[in-house]
Amino acid sequence: MNATIAMITFRAMLGRRRALLLLALPALLIVLAVVLRWTGNDDLDISADVLQQFGLATLLPLLALIAGTGVIGPEIDDGQIMYVLTKPIPRQVIVLTKLAVAIVLVAGFSVVPTLLAGLLLTGTTAQLVPAFTVGVLVGGVAYSAVFVALAVLSRNAVTIGLLYALVWETLLGSFAPGAKSASIQQWALSVTDALTPASPVSSSVDLGVAIPLLVAVTVGAAFLAAFRLRSLTIASAE
Amino acid sequence: MSTSTIHDIGYRHYEGRRSGRAYVMRSLYVHNLRAAFGLGRPARAKVMPFLLAAIMLLPAAGSVAVVAVAKRPEALMRYSSYAVTLQVIIAIFLATQAPVLASREIRFHTVPLYFSRPVGHLDFVLAKLGALATALFALMAVPVTVLYIGGLVTKVPDSWHQFLHYLAGLAGCVLFALVLAAIGTVVAAFTPRRGLGVAAVIAVYMITSTFTLIIQGIAEHQTNFTLAGWIGLLAPFNLVDIVQVRLLGQAKSAVDVPSGTFSGFVALALCALIVAGSIAVVYRRFRKAGLS
Protein backbone atom coordinates (compact mmCIF):
# COMPACT_ATOMS: atom_id res chain seq x y z
CA MET A 1 0.00 0.00 0.00
CA ASN A 2 1.18 3.47 -0.82
CA ALA A 3 -0.71 6.36 0.73
CA THR A 4 0.29 8.89 -1.92
CA ILE A 5 -0.89 6.76 -4.83
CA ALA A 6 -4.11 6.04 -2.96
CA MET A 7 -4.71 9.75 -2.35
CA ILE A 8 -4.03 10.70 -5.96
CA THR A 9 -6.33 7.96 -7.19
CA PHE A 10 -9.10 9.00 -4.85
CA ARG A 11 -8.78 12.56 -6.04
CA ALA A 12 -8.92 11.48 -9.68
CA MET A 13 -12.00 9.34 -9.08
CA LEU A 14 -13.95 11.77 -6.93
CA GLY A 15 -12.87 15.09 -8.36
CA ARG A 16 -15.45 17.52 -9.69
CA ARG A 17 -18.37 15.99 -11.56
CA ARG A 18 -17.13 12.40 -11.45
CA ALA A 19 -18.39 11.84 -7.93
CA LEU A 20 -21.84 12.93 -9.11
CA LEU A 21 -22.11 10.00 -11.49
CA LEU A 22 -20.96 7.64 -8.76
CA LEU A 23 -23.54 9.16 -6.41
CA ALA A 24 -26.43 9.29 -8.88
CA LEU A 25 -26.58 5.54 -9.35
CA PRO A 26 -26.93 4.49 -5.69
CA ALA A 27 -29.25 7.45 -5.07
CA LEU A 28 -31.68 5.91 -7.53
CA LEU A 29 -31.69 2.64 -5.60
CA ILE A 30 -32.48 4.53 -2.40
CA VAL A 31 -35.24 6.49 -4.15
CA LEU A 32 -36.72 3.27 -5.49
CA ALA A 33 -36.61 1.75 -2.00
CA VAL A 34 -38.30 4.81 -0.48
CA VAL A 35 -41.02 4.82 -3.14
CA LEU A 36 -41.67 1.10 -2.73
CA ARG A 37 -41.88 1.42 1.04
CA TRP A 38 -44.09 4.49 0.78
CA THR A 39 -46.53 2.73 -1.56
CA GLY A 40 -46.52 -0.38 0.62
CA ASN A 41 -44.80 -2.62 -1.92
CA ASP A 42 -42.16 -3.81 0.50
CA ASP A 43 -42.95 -7.47 1.10
CA LEU A 44 -40.14 -10.02 1.13
CA ASP A 45 -40.50 -11.16 -2.50
CA ILE A 46 -40.35 -7.66 -3.96
CA SER A 47 -37.58 -6.59 -1.62
CA ALA A 48 -35.41 -9.57 -2.47
CA ASP A 49 -36.13 -9.00 -6.15
CA VAL A 50 -35.20 -5.31 -6.00
CA LEU A 51 -32.03 -5.95 -4.02
CA GLN A 52 -31.02 -8.69 -6.42
CA GLN A 53 -32.03 -7.11 -9.74
CA PHE A 54 -31.05 -3.55 -8.96
CA GLY A 55 -28.43 -3.85 -6.22
CA LEU A 56 -26.54 -6.99 -7.12
CA ALA A 57 -27.10 -7.33 -10.86
CA THR A 58 -27.11 -3.70 -12.04
CA LEU A 59 -25.58 -1.31 -9.55
CA LEU A 60 -22.70 -3.53 -8.44
CA PRO A 61 -21.24 -4.44 -11.87
CA LEU A 62 -21.71 -0.87 -13.11
CA LEU A 63 -19.96 0.73 -10.15
CA ALA A 64 -17.25 -1.91 -10.07
CA LEU A 65 -16.68 -1.26 -13.77
CA ILE A 66 -16.47 2.50 -13.28
CA ALA A 67 -14.24 2.20 -10.22
CA GLY A 68 -12.14 -0.77 -11.36
CA THR A 69 -11.25 0.58 -14.78
CA GLY A 70 -11.30 4.20 -13.62
CA VAL A 71 -8.54 3.84 -11.03
CA ILE A 72 -5.91 2.83 -13.57
CA GLY A 73 -7.31 2.89 -17.12
CA PRO A 74 -7.21 6.63 -17.88
CA GLU A 75 -3.67 6.94 -16.48
CA ILE A 76 -2.41 4.17 -18.76
CA ASP A 77 -4.27 5.64 -21.72
CA ASP A 78 -2.78 9.11 -21.50
CA GLY A 79 0.64 7.94 -20.33
CA GLN A 80 0.54 9.53 -16.87
CA ILE A 81 1.15 6.10 -15.35
CA MET A 82 4.81 6.64 -16.31
CA TYR A 83 5.19 9.13 -13.47
CA VAL A 84 4.16 6.42 -11.04
CA LEU A 85 5.99 3.54 -12.70
CA THR A 86 9.32 5.39 -12.77
CA LYS A 87 9.31 5.79 -8.98
CA PRO A 88 11.02 3.09 -6.92
CA ILE A 89 7.74 1.51 -5.90
CA PRO A 90 7.15 -2.21 -6.56
CA ARG A 91 4.56 -2.77 -9.27
CA GLN A 92 2.47 -5.06 -7.10
CA VAL A 93 2.20 -2.30 -4.53
CA ILE A 94 0.86 0.03 -7.21
CA VAL A 95 -1.69 -2.55 -8.37
CA LEU A 96 -2.74 -3.46 -4.84
CA THR A 97 -3.15 0.19 -3.88
CA LYS A 98 -5.27 0.89 -6.95
CA LEU A 99 -7.30 -2.23 -6.26
CA ALA A 100 -7.83 -1.23 -2.63
CA VAL A 101 -9.06 2.20 -3.75
CA ALA A 102 -11.47 0.56 -6.20
CA ILE A 103 -12.78 -1.76 -3.49
CA VAL A 104 -13.27 1.13 -1.07
CA LEU A 105 -15.18 3.05 -3.74
CA VAL A 106 -17.37 0.06 -4.57
CA ALA A 107 -18.01 -0.50 -0.88
CA GLY A 108 -18.93 3.14 -0.35
CA PHE A 109 -21.13 3.59 -3.39
CA SER A 110 -22.62 0.14 -3.78
CA VAL A 111 -22.49 -1.88 -0.56
CA VAL A 112 -23.63 0.93 1.74
CA PRO A 113 -26.58 1.93 -0.51
CA THR A 114 -27.62 -1.73 -0.77
CA LEU A 115 -27.55 -1.91 3.01
CA LEU A 116 -29.62 1.27 3.31
CA ALA A 117 -32.12 0.19 0.65
CA GLY A 118 -32.45 -3.19 2.33
CA LEU A 119 -33.08 -1.60 5.73
CA LEU A 120 -35.69 0.69 4.16
CA LEU A 121 -37.41 -2.21 2.42
CA THR A 122 -37.35 -5.13 4.82
CA GLY A 123 -35.87 -3.98 8.09
CA THR A 124 -34.34 -7.09 9.61
CA THR A 125 -36.66 -9.76 8.21
CA ALA A 126 -35.00 -13.09 7.36
CA GLN A 127 -31.47 -11.66 7.60
CA LEU A 128 -32.00 -10.44 4.05
CA VAL A 129 -30.09 -7.20 4.59
CA PRO A 130 -26.86 -8.58 6.06
CA ALA A 131 -26.95 -11.40 3.51
CA PHE A 132 -27.16 -9.00 0.58
CA THR A 133 -24.59 -6.66 2.12
CA VAL A 134 -22.06 -9.47 2.42
CA GLY A 135 -22.96 -10.82 -1.03
CA VAL A 136 -22.52 -7.44 -2.69
CA LEU A 137 -19.27 -6.87 -0.82
CA VAL A 138 -17.61 -10.14 -1.88
CA GLY A 139 -18.96 -9.68 -5.40
CA GLY A 140 -17.59 -6.15 -5.41
CA VAL A 141 -14.11 -7.31 -4.40
CA ALA A 142 -14.05 -9.92 -7.19
CA TYR A 143 -15.48 -7.55 -9.81
CA SER A 144 -13.00 -4.81 -8.87
CA ALA A 145 -10.03 -7.18 -9.18
CA VAL A 146 -11.21 -8.43 -12.57
CA PHE A 147 -11.86 -4.95 -13.94
CA VAL A 148 -8.54 -3.57 -12.67
CA ALA A 149 -6.80 -6.47 -14.43
CA LEU A 150 -8.82 -5.79 -17.59
CA ALA A 151 -7.85 -2.13 -17.51
CA VAL A 152 -4.17 -3.07 -17.38
CA LEU A 153 -4.54 -5.68 -20.11
CA SER A 154 -6.59 -3.84 -22.69
CA ARG A 155 -7.45 -0.38 -23.95
CA ASN A 156 -10.99 -1.55 -24.58
CA ALA A 157 -11.37 -2.57 -20.93
CA VAL A 158 -14.69 -0.80 -20.37
CA THR A 159 -16.30 -2.34 -23.44
CA ILE A 160 -14.99 -5.81 -22.67
CA GLY A 161 -16.19 -5.42 -19.10
CA LEU A 162 -19.61 -4.39 -20.36
CA LEU A 163 -19.76 -7.35 -22.73
CA TYR A 164 -18.93 -9.62 -19.80
CA ALA A 165 -21.31 -8.04 -17.31
CA LEU A 166 -24.26 -7.53 -19.65
CA VAL A 167 -23.97 -10.14 -22.37
CA TRP A 168 -22.22 -13.01 -20.61
CA GLU A 169 -23.82 -12.76 -17.18
CA THR A 170 -27.27 -11.56 -18.16
CA LEU A 171 -28.07 -12.60 -21.72
CA LEU A 172 -26.18 -15.87 -22.07
CA GLY A 173 -27.05 -16.74 -18.49
CA SER A 174 -30.71 -16.97 -19.44
CA PHE A 175 -30.01 -19.28 -22.41
CA ALA A 176 -27.02 -21.37 -21.38
CA PRO A 177 -26.93 -22.63 -17.79
CA GLY A 178 -23.19 -23.26 -18.08
CA ALA A 179 -22.51 -19.59 -18.71
CA LYS A 180 -24.70 -18.73 -15.77
CA SER A 181 -22.55 -20.73 -13.36
CA ALA A 182 -19.38 -19.04 -14.53
CA SER A 183 -20.33 -15.56 -13.38
CA ILE A 184 -19.28 -13.46 -10.42
CA GLN A 185 -22.89 -12.38 -9.99
CA GLN A 186 -24.03 -15.96 -9.35
CA TRP A 187 -21.15 -16.63 -6.96
CA ALA A 188 -22.01 -13.51 -4.97
CA LEU A 189 -25.65 -14.56 -5.02
CA SER A 190 -24.61 -17.96 -3.72
CA VAL A 191 -22.98 -16.31 -0.71
CA THR A 192 -26.17 -14.29 -0.15
CA ASP A 193 -28.27 -17.42 -0.54
CA ALA A 194 -26.28 -19.21 2.14
CA LEU A 195 -26.78 -16.37 4.61
CA THR A 196 -30.53 -15.92 4.32
CA PRO A 197 -33.40 -18.37 4.74
CA ALA A 198 -35.56 -16.26 2.39
CA SER A 199 -36.81 -18.43 -0.47
CA PRO A 200 -36.83 -15.84 -3.31
CA VAL A 201 -33.03 -15.78 -3.25
CA SER A 202 -31.58 -18.83 -4.94
CA SER A 203 -28.35 -19.33 -6.80
CA SER A 204 -27.35 -21.95 -9.35
CA VAL A 205 -23.93 -22.39 -7.74
CA ASP A 206 -23.12 -24.20 -4.48
CA LEU A 207 -21.44 -22.21 -1.73
CA GLY A 208 -18.62 -24.74 -1.60
CA VAL A 209 -17.84 -24.01 -5.23
CA ALA A 210 -18.57 -20.29 -5.16
CA ILE A 211 -16.17 -19.26 -2.40
CA PRO A 212 -13.04 -20.92 -3.83
CA LEU A 213 -13.93 -19.52 -7.26
CA LEU A 214 -14.39 -16.00 -5.85
CA VAL A 215 -11.04 -16.21 -4.05
CA ALA A 216 -9.29 -17.72 -7.07
CA VAL A 217 -10.65 -15.09 -9.48
CA THR A 218 -9.80 -12.21 -7.15
CA VAL A 219 -6.27 -13.37 -6.40
CA GLY A 220 -5.66 -14.46 -9.98
CA ALA A 221 -6.81 -11.11 -11.40
CA ALA A 222 -4.67 -9.18 -8.92
CA PHE A 223 -1.61 -11.28 -9.84
CA LEU A 224 -2.30 -10.89 -13.53
CA ALA A 225 -2.61 -7.12 -13.21
CA ALA A 226 0.66 -6.89 -11.25
CA PHE A 227 2.41 -9.18 -13.72
CA ARG A 228 1.22 -7.23 -16.76
CA LEU A 229 2.09 -3.90 -15.20
CA ARG A 230 5.71 -5.06 -14.89
CA SER A 231 6.11 -5.05 -18.68
CA LEU A 232 3.64 -2.40 -19.72
CA THR A 233 4.23 -0.75 -23.08
CA ILE A 234 3.04 2.79 -23.33
CA ALA A 235 1.68 3.46 -26.77
CA SER A 236 0.82 6.93 -27.94
CA ALA A 237 -2.62 8.26 -27.14
CA GLU A 238 -5.26 7.66 -29.80
CA MET B 1 -21.87 33.72 -44.91
CA SER B 2 -19.65 36.73 -45.50
CA THR B 3 -16.65 36.14 -47.72
CA SER B 4 -14.31 37.60 -45.13
CA THR B 5 -13.67 35.09 -42.38
CA ILE B 6 -11.05 34.69 -39.74
CA HIS B 7 -8.59 32.88 -41.93
CA ASP B 8 -8.39 35.77 -44.38
CA ILE B 9 -5.68 37.47 -42.37
CA GLY B 10 -4.26 39.55 -45.15
CA TYR B 11 -1.15 37.72 -46.19
CA ARG B 12 -2.62 36.18 -49.24
CA HIS B 13 -6.14 36.62 -50.50
CA TYR B 14 -8.23 33.74 -51.60
CA GLU B 15 -10.13 34.45 -54.79
CA GLY B 16 -11.34 30.93 -55.62
CA ARG B 17 -14.67 29.31 -55.12
CA ARG B 18 -15.92 28.87 -51.55
CA SER B 19 -17.53 25.54 -50.92
CA GLY B 20 -20.09 26.86 -48.47
CA ARG B 21 -22.11 25.59 -45.58
CA ALA B 22 -23.42 22.39 -47.16
CA TYR B 23 -19.87 21.28 -47.94
CA VAL B 24 -18.74 21.97 -44.37
CA MET B 25 -21.64 19.99 -42.97
CA ARG B 26 -21.12 17.11 -45.35
CA SER B 27 -17.42 16.92 -44.48
CA LEU B 28 -18.10 16.93 -40.75
CA TYR B 29 -20.85 14.35 -41.17
CA VAL B 30 -18.66 11.98 -43.18
CA HIS B 31 -15.75 12.44 -40.80
CA ASN B 32 -17.91 11.64 -37.78
CA LEU B 33 -19.60 8.71 -39.48
CA ARG B 34 -16.20 7.20 -40.27
CA ALA B 35 -15.10 7.84 -36.68
CA ALA B 36 -18.21 6.04 -35.40
CA PHE B 37 -16.89 2.81 -36.94
CA GLY B 38 -13.24 3.56 -36.21
CA LEU B 39 -12.38 4.13 -39.88
CA GLY B 40 -9.37 6.36 -40.30
CA ARG B 41 -8.22 5.46 -36.79
CA PRO B 42 -5.91 2.69 -35.56
CA ALA B 43 -7.04 -0.94 -35.67
CA ARG B 44 -7.68 -0.88 -31.94
CA ALA B 45 -10.53 1.56 -32.49
CA LYS B 46 -12.09 -0.62 -35.21
CA VAL B 47 -12.27 -3.83 -33.17
CA MET B 48 -15.23 -3.01 -30.96
CA PRO B 49 -17.66 -1.40 -33.44
CA PHE B 50 -17.17 -4.16 -35.98
CA LEU B 51 -17.31 -6.90 -33.35
CA LEU B 52 -20.60 -5.49 -32.08
CA ALA B 53 -21.93 -5.14 -35.63
CA ALA B 54 -21.04 -8.78 -36.24
CA ILE B 55 -22.82 -9.84 -33.05
CA MET B 56 -25.86 -7.87 -34.25
CA LEU B 57 -25.91 -9.90 -37.46
CA LEU B 58 -25.69 -13.33 -35.80
CA PRO B 59 -29.33 -13.71 -34.67
CA ALA B 60 -30.61 -12.54 -38.07
CA ALA B 61 -28.41 -15.02 -39.89
CA GLY B 62 -29.40 -17.76 -37.44
CA SER B 63 -33.08 -16.98 -37.84
CA VAL B 64 -32.86 -17.09 -41.64
CA ALA B 65 -30.92 -20.36 -41.43
CA VAL B 66 -33.61 -21.91 -39.25
CA VAL B 67 -36.30 -20.80 -41.70
CA ALA B 68 -34.34 -22.17 -44.66
CA VAL B 69 -33.33 -25.51 -43.13
CA ALA B 70 -36.34 -26.37 -41.00
CA LYS B 71 -38.87 -24.84 -43.44
CA ARG B 72 -40.59 -23.05 -40.60
CA PRO B 73 -41.48 -19.55 -41.83
CA GLU B 74 -42.92 -18.56 -38.46
CA ALA B 75 -39.41 -18.82 -36.97
CA LEU B 76 -38.37 -15.63 -38.79
CA MET B 77 -37.81 -12.92 -36.17
CA ARG B 78 -40.17 -9.99 -36.36
CA TYR B 79 -38.50 -6.92 -37.88
CA SER B 80 -39.80 -4.53 -35.24
CA SER B 81 -38.67 -6.78 -32.38
CA TYR B 82 -35.05 -6.99 -33.53
CA ALA B 83 -33.77 -3.83 -31.86
CA VAL B 84 -35.67 -4.54 -28.65
CA THR B 85 -34.38 -8.10 -28.45
CA LEU B 86 -30.78 -7.03 -29.01
CA GLN B 87 -31.01 -3.81 -27.03
CA VAL B 88 -28.02 -4.70 -24.86
CA ILE B 89 -25.70 -4.92 -27.87
CA ILE B 90 -27.07 -1.68 -29.31
CA ALA B 91 -26.64 0.02 -25.94
CA ILE B 92 -23.02 -1.15 -25.70
CA PHE B 93 -22.36 0.11 -29.25
CA LEU B 94 -23.90 3.45 -28.31
CA ALA B 95 -21.87 3.57 -25.10
CA THR B 96 -18.55 2.84 -26.82
CA GLN B 97 -19.07 5.06 -29.86
CA ALA B 98 -20.96 8.07 -28.49
CA PRO B 99 -17.89 9.26 -26.51
CA VAL B 100 -15.74 8.81 -29.64
CA LEU B 101 -17.91 11.36 -31.39
CA ALA B 102 -18.91 13.64 -28.57
CA SER B 103 -16.12 13.60 -25.97
CA ARG B 104 -12.80 13.70 -27.79
CA GLU B 105 -12.83 17.31 -29.01
CA ILE B 106 -13.88 18.48 -25.57
CA ARG B 107 -11.28 16.34 -23.82
CA PHE B 108 -8.42 17.63 -25.97
CA HIS B 109 -9.75 21.21 -26.03
CA THR B 110 -9.83 21.27 -29.82
CA VAL B 111 -13.38 22.58 -30.25
CA PRO B 112 -12.20 26.21 -30.74
CA LEU B 113 -10.12 25.02 -33.71
CA TYR B 114 -13.34 24.07 -35.50
CA PHE B 115 -15.13 27.27 -34.62
CA SER B 116 -12.26 29.52 -35.70
CA ARG B 117 -13.13 28.30 -39.20
CA PRO B 118 -16.38 28.98 -40.99
CA VAL B 119 -18.16 26.14 -39.19
CA GLY B 120 -21.53 26.97 -37.66
CA HIS B 121 -22.11 25.83 -34.09
CA LEU B 122 -25.44 24.27 -34.98
CA ASP B 123 -24.05 22.59 -38.09
CA PHE B 124 -21.30 21.04 -36.01
CA VAL B 125 -23.79 19.58 -33.54
CA LEU B 126 -26.22 18.41 -36.22
CA ALA B 127 -23.43 16.69 -38.11
CA LYS B 128 -22.35 14.82 -34.98
CA LEU B 129 -25.87 13.74 -34.02
CA GLY B 130 -26.68 12.83 -37.62
CA ALA B 131 -23.53 10.74 -37.94
CA LEU B 132 -24.17 8.83 -34.73
CA ALA B 133 -27.81 8.29 -35.67
CA THR B 134 -26.76 7.02 -39.10
CA ALA B 135 -24.25 4.63 -37.56
CA LEU B 136 -26.88 3.27 -35.18
CA PHE B 137 -29.41 3.01 -38.01
CA ALA B 138 -26.92 1.01 -40.05
CA LEU B 139 -26.24 -1.22 -37.05
CA MET B 140 -29.96 -2.05 -36.75
CA ALA B 141 -31.16 -1.81 -40.34
CA VAL B 142 -28.57 -4.15 -41.87
CA PRO B 143 -29.66 -7.20 -39.81
CA VAL B 144 -33.32 -6.32 -40.37
CA THR B 145 -32.64 -6.17 -44.11
CA VAL B 146 -30.83 -9.51 -43.89
CA LEU B 147 -33.95 -10.92 -42.26
CA TYR B 148 -36.19 -9.49 -44.99
CA ILE B 149 -34.00 -10.69 -47.86
CA GLY B 150 -33.64 -14.06 -46.15
CA GLY B 151 -37.42 -14.20 -45.92
CA LEU B 152 -37.74 -13.39 -49.63
CA VAL B 153 -35.18 -16.01 -50.63
CA THR B 154 -36.73 -18.72 -48.49
CA LYS B 155 -40.19 -17.74 -49.81
CA VAL B 156 -41.85 -16.83 -46.54
CA PRO B 157 -45.58 -16.53 -47.43
CA ASP B 158 -47.57 -13.30 -47.57
CA SER B 159 -44.81 -11.23 -49.13
CA TRP B 160 -46.84 -7.99 -49.31
CA HIS B 161 -47.41 -8.01 -45.58
CA GLN B 162 -43.77 -8.90 -45.02
CA PHE B 163 -42.84 -5.83 -47.07
CA LEU B 164 -45.11 -3.58 -45.05
CA HIS B 165 -43.73 -4.97 -41.79
CA TYR B 166 -40.22 -4.46 -43.14
CA LEU B 167 -40.95 -0.81 -43.89
CA ALA B 168 -42.45 -0.37 -40.42
CA GLY B 169 -39.39 -2.05 -38.95
CA LEU B 170 -37.11 0.36 -40.80
CA ALA B 171 -39.16 3.31 -39.58
CA GLY B 172 -38.77 1.96 -36.07
CA CYS B 173 -35.01 1.70 -36.61
CA VAL B 174 -34.88 5.36 -37.64
CA LEU B 175 -36.67 6.36 -34.47
CA PHE B 176 -34.49 4.09 -32.31
CA ALA B 177 -31.38 5.57 -33.92
CA LEU B 178 -32.48 9.19 -33.40
CA VAL B 179 -33.55 8.76 -29.78
CA LEU B 180 -30.50 6.73 -28.78
CA ALA B 181 -28.07 9.04 -30.57
CA ALA B 182 -29.66 12.02 -28.84
CA ILE B 183 -29.34 10.48 -25.37
CA GLY B 184 -25.84 9.12 -25.97
CA THR B 185 -24.47 12.39 -27.33
CA VAL B 186 -25.76 14.46 -24.44
CA VAL B 187 -24.37 12.11 -21.80
CA ALA B 188 -21.03 11.70 -23.55
CA ALA B 189 -20.64 15.45 -24.11
CA PHE B 190 -20.78 16.01 -20.37
CA THR B 191 -18.37 13.22 -19.39
CA PRO B 192 -15.19 13.93 -21.37
CA ARG B 193 -12.95 11.82 -19.12
CA ARG B 194 -11.74 8.71 -20.91
CA GLY B 195 -13.71 5.60 -20.03
CA LEU B 196 -16.17 7.54 -17.93
CA GLY B 197 -18.31 8.48 -20.92
CA VAL B 198 -18.79 4.83 -21.81
CA ALA B 199 -19.80 3.99 -18.26
CA ALA B 200 -22.11 7.01 -18.03
CA VAL B 201 -24.01 6.16 -21.22
CA ILE B 202 -24.44 2.53 -20.26
CA ALA B 203 -25.44 3.59 -16.76
CA VAL B 204 -28.24 5.76 -18.14
CA TYR B 205 -29.46 2.86 -20.27
CA MET B 206 -29.21 0.20 -17.57
CA ILE B 207 -30.66 2.27 -14.76
CA THR B 208 -33.68 3.37 -16.80
CA SER B 209 -34.39 -0.09 -18.16
CA THR B 210 -33.91 -1.92 -14.84
CA PHE B 211 -35.97 0.68 -13.00
CA THR B 212 -38.76 0.34 -15.56
CA LEU B 213 -38.64 -3.46 -15.47
CA ILE B 214 -38.92 -3.56 -11.69
CA ILE B 215 -41.84 -1.13 -11.62
CA GLN B 216 -43.53 -3.02 -14.45
CA GLY B 217 -43.07 -6.31 -12.61
CA ILE B 218 -44.62 -4.94 -9.44
CA ALA B 219 -47.44 -3.18 -11.30
CA GLU B 220 -48.32 -6.33 -13.25
CA HIS B 221 -48.26 -8.29 -10.02
CA GLN B 222 -50.92 -5.90 -8.70
CA THR B 223 -52.77 -6.03 -12.06
CA ASN B 224 -52.20 -2.30 -12.47
CA PHE B 225 -51.65 -2.53 -16.24
CA THR B 226 -52.12 1.20 -16.80
CA LEU B 227 -49.08 2.02 -14.70
CA ALA B 228 -47.11 -0.90 -16.18
CA GLY B 229 -47.74 0.48 -19.66
CA TRP B 230 -47.11 4.15 -19.03
CA ILE B 231 -43.94 3.64 -16.97
CA GLY B 232 -42.50 2.21 -20.21
CA LEU B 233 -42.08 5.80 -21.40
CA LEU B 234 -39.05 6.05 -19.11
CA ALA B 235 -36.91 3.42 -20.83
CA PRO B 236 -35.64 4.40 -24.30
CA PHE B 237 -36.25 1.04 -25.98
CA ASN B 238 -39.67 0.66 -24.41
CA LEU B 239 -40.51 4.25 -25.45
CA VAL B 240 -39.82 3.63 -29.13
CA ASP B 241 -41.60 0.28 -28.97
CA ILE B 242 -44.74 2.11 -27.83
CA VAL B 243 -44.59 4.11 -31.07
CA GLN B 244 -43.98 0.91 -33.06
CA VAL B 245 -46.96 -0.82 -31.48
CA ARG B 246 -49.47 2.02 -31.34
CA LEU B 247 -48.67 4.02 -34.48
CA LEU B 248 -46.99 1.50 -36.80
CA GLY B 249 -49.28 -1.41 -35.95
CA GLN B 250 -46.58 -3.87 -34.91
CA ALA B 251 -46.87 -6.54 -32.23
CA LYS B 252 -45.49 -5.77 -28.78
CA SER B 253 -41.78 -6.48 -28.18
CA ALA B 254 -41.13 -4.63 -24.93
CA VAL B 255 -42.53 -5.89 -21.64
CA ASP B 256 -45.51 -3.54 -21.52
CA VAL B 257 -47.02 -0.80 -23.63
CA PRO B 258 -49.97 1.43 -22.72
CA SER B 259 -53.18 1.00 -24.69
CA GLY B 260 -54.72 3.36 -27.26
CA THR B 261 -53.38 5.34 -30.19
CA PHE B 262 -53.09 8.37 -27.95
CA SER B 263 -50.22 6.76 -26.03
CA GLY B 264 -48.41 6.29 -29.33
CA PHE B 265 -48.62 10.01 -30.02
CA VAL B 266 -47.44 10.79 -26.49
CA ALA B 267 -44.45 8.50 -26.99
CA LEU B 268 -43.69 10.04 -30.39
CA ALA B 269 -43.90 13.52 -28.89
CA LEU B 270 -41.54 12.46 -26.12
CA CYS B 271 -39.09 11.11 -28.72
CA ALA B 272 -39.22 14.42 -30.58
CA LEU B 273 -38.72 16.26 -27.30
CA ILE B 274 -35.67 14.13 -26.47
CA VAL B 275 -34.09 14.79 -29.86
CA ALA B 276 -34.84 18.53 -29.84
CA GLY B 277 -33.73 18.90 -26.23
CA SER B 278 -30.55 17.01 -26.95
CA ILE B 279 -29.70 19.28 -29.88
CA ALA B 280 -30.24 22.33 -27.68
CA VAL B 281 -28.17 20.98 -24.80
CA VAL B 282 -25.28 19.74 -26.95
CA TYR B 283 -25.33 23.06 -28.86
CA ARG B 284 -24.87 24.98 -25.63
CA ARG B 285 -22.20 22.54 -24.47
CA PHE B 286 -20.05 22.82 -27.59
CA ARG B 287 -20.45 26.58 -27.88
CA LYS B 288 -18.90 27.03 -24.47
CA ALA B 289 -16.40 24.16 -24.65
CA GLY B 290 -12.74 25.03 -24.69
CA LEU B 291 -13.22 28.77 -24.33
CA SER B 292 -12.44 28.89 -20.62
From TrEMBL, chain A:
Protein known as: ABC transporter permease subunit
Keyword Membrane assigned: yes
Residue spans crossing the bilayer: 53-72, 93-116, 128-153, 160-179, 207-227
Top-level taxonomy: Bacteria, Bacillati, Actinomycetota, Actinomycetes, Streptosporangiales
PANTHER family: INTEGRAL MEMBRANE PROTEIN-RELATED, MEMBRANE PROTEIN
Keywords, in A-Z order: Membrane, Transmembrane, Transmembrane helix
Stored Pfam families: ABC2_membrane_4
From TrEMBL, chain B:
Keyword Methyltransferase: no
Highest taxon in the source lineage: Bacteria
Protein source organism: Actinomadura physcomitrii
Keyword annotations: Membrane, Transmembrane, Transmembrane helix
Species classification: Bacteria, Bacillati, Actinomycetota, Actinomycetes, Streptosporangiales
Membrane-traversing stretches: 47-70, 82-104, 124-151, 163-190, 196-215, 261-283
The protein's name in its UniProt record: ABC transporter permease
Zinc found in the keyword field: no
